């Protein structure tokens, strides 16, 4: 598709989403009806010249179209009963073939050569995934998963990730100019479904993201263009530096997952917020990393770091209350701070907006199983098992096994808890808490030596980890998780790794 054609398609789709054509048609019908009635009932109006009548009608039509254009898209959509901003949440994660279309976004190739531009290219690709992930009838492979397929044959990418479309391209920066080339390939035919070249100033990078996401939504046949236009991309970053620092922090933390990585990520996110205090993603990621430090026993002052984490999450939501990614991270922070009901409410809202957001589904499954009723726990376990079936290659695969171990521990099925914890540490041996759950299950099942060896593995990955600290963490957040402290630590108690909880802490 040529540039003018692509821009024209975007404009037409925006107009359709906003109800412009319906408003224009309704207005013209009303004008014709009024003219006919006036000729029958007020013949004197016939004295008006045809030219005058045309000017009046055209002027009124222009006013109607302009007013409709500036009405929020969601209002028009809801009035028509389609493309509502927040559709009802599905009961379980949808299967991969239930979406109208599916896409994997590969990292843009960095043609500039500079290392900082590689980060820009990666961040640009991640932001495209972020925007498209909120489109309910489009399944989007998480970027951390699709990024591993850079340089692979597109047919293999499509087959292994089970997608119809693959987006590839390149990014080149020169001084204050930017050139982005994007190509959408249909895996069924192996042919290009759409391609475009964008040559803009650096400051226009975020507008290019918007245009590209909209073009992809059009080409894949989505009915939800208004969500991209008005919800997910409504607050572009103010500068490239803050944006780059944010993506650098997220990438480094999710790959390294160490105490040192968390400290570096916090430093970069704080720098990003100095440059751009209104960056919602930087705020929520800072809250997320601070909270993860507490959960993983990295924090120097757990109480203070959790307090900061909650404050950063609230700041992010004030800035971007409808952003699915912001809400996704917020739900996990609230869950880890013992605010279970708030976490569940937020996670359900995320999967309603973005039903193929498998990370949010995982948080929802864990939250349902943690301290809930038997019915809630069964629902959470069903969600997590379905995730393993739907997305077996997802980067969160070991964490879903960890969540299942947690869930079965809550139900006191320690054999199942042990099995899932074992898979979690086999796939991700650096995840300290997976070893802790394994140790607890082994202790309950009578394998005291196995429990102690598992804790030794946890401490080898994080020398600062102490089982007493894990117990205190559970106690601190036990307000909404009932008897969870006893369930999650009784194997550690039997193995002599923590003291028995008091009556107050076990309740």
Chain-wise SSE layout:
Blueprint lengths: L2 H15 L2 H22 L8 H20 L3 H8 L20 E5 L3 E2 L4 H18 L5 E3 L2 H4 L7 H8 L3 E10 L2 E10 L4 E11 L3 H15 L5 H8 L7 H17 L2 H17 L4 H16 L6 H18 L4 H13 L3 H14 L4 H12 L4 H17 L6 H14 L3 H14 L4 H13 L3 H14 L5 H10 L7 H11 L8 H4 L1
Parallel strand pairs: 1-3, 1-4, 2-4
Antiparallel strand pairs: 4-5, 5-6
Helix pairs in contact: 1-8, 2-3, 5-8, 5-10, 10-11, 10-12, 11-12, 12-13, 12-14, 13-14, 14-15, 14-16, 15-16, 16-17, 16-18, 17-18, 18-19, 18-20, 19-20, 20-21, 20-23, 22-23
What this model shows, in words?
- The protein is built from 24 helices and six strands.
- It has 507 residues and is an alpha/beta fold.
- Among the domains are: 3-80; 101-232, TolB, N-terminal domain (Rossmann fold, 3-Layer(aba) Sandwich), CATH 3.40.50.10070; 368-507, Alpha Horseshoe (Serine Threonine Protein Phosphatase 5, Tetratricopeptide repeat), CATH 1.25.40.10.
- Strands 1, 2, 3, 4, 5 and 6 form a six-stranded mixed β-sheet that branches.
- β4 (165-174) and β5 (177-186) form a beta hairpin.
- The model is unreliable at 1-21, 63-85 and 229-234 (pLDDT under 50).
């Amino acid at each position: 598709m040529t540039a003018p054609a692509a821009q024209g398609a975007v404009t037409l789709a925006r107009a359709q989403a906003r109800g412009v054509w319906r408003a224009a048609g309704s207005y013209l019908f009303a004008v014709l009806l009024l003219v006919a009635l006036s000729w029958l009932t007020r013949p004197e109006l016939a004295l008006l010249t045809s030219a005058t009548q045309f000017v009046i009608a055209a002027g009124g039509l222009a006013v109607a179209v302009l007013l409709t254009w500036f009405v929020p898209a969601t209002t028009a959509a809801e009035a028509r009963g389609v493309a509502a901003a927040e559709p009802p949440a599905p009961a379980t994660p949808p299967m991969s073939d239930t979406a109208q279309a599916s896409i994997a976004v590969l990292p843009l190739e960095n043609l500039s050569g500079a290392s900082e531009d590689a980060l820009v290219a990666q961040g640009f690709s991640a932001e495209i995934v972020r925007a498209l992930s909120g489109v309910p009838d489009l399944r989007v492979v998480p970027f951390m998963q699709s990024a591993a397929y850079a340089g692979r044959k597109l047919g293999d990418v499509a087959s292994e990730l089970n997608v119809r479309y693959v987006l590839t391209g390149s990014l080149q920066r020169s001084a204050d100019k930017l050139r982005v080339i994007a190509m959408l390939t249909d895996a069924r035919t192996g042919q290009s479904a759409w391609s475009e070249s964008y040559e803009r100033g650096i400051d226009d990078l975020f507008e290019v993201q918007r245009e590209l996401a909209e073009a992809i939504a059009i080409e894949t046949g989505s009915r939800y263009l208004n969500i991209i236009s008005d919800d997910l991309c409504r607050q572009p970053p103010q500068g490239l530096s803050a944006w780059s620092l944010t993506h650098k922090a997220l990438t480094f933390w999710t790959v390294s997952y160490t105490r040192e990585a968390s400290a570096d990520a916090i430093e970069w996110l704080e720098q990003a917020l100095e440059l751009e205090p209104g960056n919602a993603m930087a705020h929520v990621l800072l809250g997320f990393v601070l909270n993860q430090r507490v959960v993983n026993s990295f924090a120097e002052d757990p109480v203070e770091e959790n307090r900061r984490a909650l404050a950063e999450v609230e700041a992010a939501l004030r800035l971007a209350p409808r952003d699915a990614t912001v809400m996704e991270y917020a739900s996990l922070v609230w869950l880890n701070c013992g605010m279970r009901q708030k976490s569940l409410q937020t996670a359900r809202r995320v999967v309603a907006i973005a039903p193929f957001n498998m990370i949010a589904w995982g948080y929802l499954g864990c939250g349902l199983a943690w301290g809930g009723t038997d019915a809630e726990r069964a629902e959470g376990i069903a969600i997590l098992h379905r995730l393993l079936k739907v997305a077996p290659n997802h980067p969160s695969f070991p964490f879903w096994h960890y969540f299942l171990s947690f869930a079965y521990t809550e139900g006191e099925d320690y054999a199942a808890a042990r099995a899932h914890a074992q898979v979690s540490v086999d796939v991700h041996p650096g995840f300290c808490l997976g070893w802790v759950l394994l140790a607890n299950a082994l202790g309950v099942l009578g394998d005291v030596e196995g429990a102690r060896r598992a804790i030794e593995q946890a401490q080898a990955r994080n020398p600062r980890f102490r089982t007493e600290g894990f117990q205190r963490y559970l106690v601190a957040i036990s307000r909404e998780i009932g008897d969870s402290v006893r369930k999650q630590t009784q194997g550690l108690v039997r193995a002599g790794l923590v003291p028995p909880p008091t009556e107050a802490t076990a309740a």
